[in-house]
Write a structure and sequence with these properties.
Helix content: over 70%
Number of domains: 1
Oligomer: single chain
Strand order of the largest sheet: 1-2
Distance between the termini: 50 Å
Shape: rod-shaped
Order of helices and strands: HEHHEH
């Protein structure tokens, strides 16, 4: 009877051992770093995409704000220099100077509003980066799960 069982086992196909899953990391993961679940990986991938979009939206604003700030500073310097040259007895000259000064003040207020909006975007991006660094960076995941997420599963 034992011989029959052994013979039966010998005829069964050998069970293949599961292939080890291929691993990858977000950032620089140390050996033994925790694995992300599929849902955590999905959230990290979405957060990374969101940060890339925020960065692409924010970077061009930085250059424009810098240029606007430099232009406003130059306009302020010009107004200071012109102020000393104005004949205060000439009402029309004083009126024209005051109008230029008012225009610059409006431009400064608009610049401050754009600057505040830019700073809000930068702070949101920094908060997302900090969250990503804590929850995603340095964690391992399985590549097949990444492929499934990219495929919409």
């Amino acid at each position: 009877m034992l011989a029959a069982c052994i013979a039966g086992l010998a005829t069964m196909p050998a069970l293949a051992a599961d292939k080890p899953k291929k691993e990858s990391t977000l950032g620089k993961a140390k050996a033994g770093a925790p694995f992300l679940t599929k849902e955590q990986l999905r959230a990290c991938m979405a957060q990374n995409d969101r940060m890339k979009a925020q960065l692409a939206e924010t970077l061009p604003l930085q250059g424009a704000l810098k240029k606007d700030g430099d232009d406003l500073a130059a306009a302020g310097d010009t107004l200071k220099a012109d102020r000393e040259k104005i004949d205060t007895a000439d009402a029309a000259a004083v009126q024209a100077f005051n109008e230029r000064l008012a225009e610059r003040d409006k431009a400064v207020e608009a610049y401050r509003a754009r600057s505040a909006a830019y700073n809000t975007k930068v702070e949101a991006l920094q908060a997302d980066r900090a969250s990503y660094a804590t929850n995603c960076d340095g964690h391992r995941y399985f590549e097949d799960e990444e492929l499934q997420i990219k495929a919409g599963k």
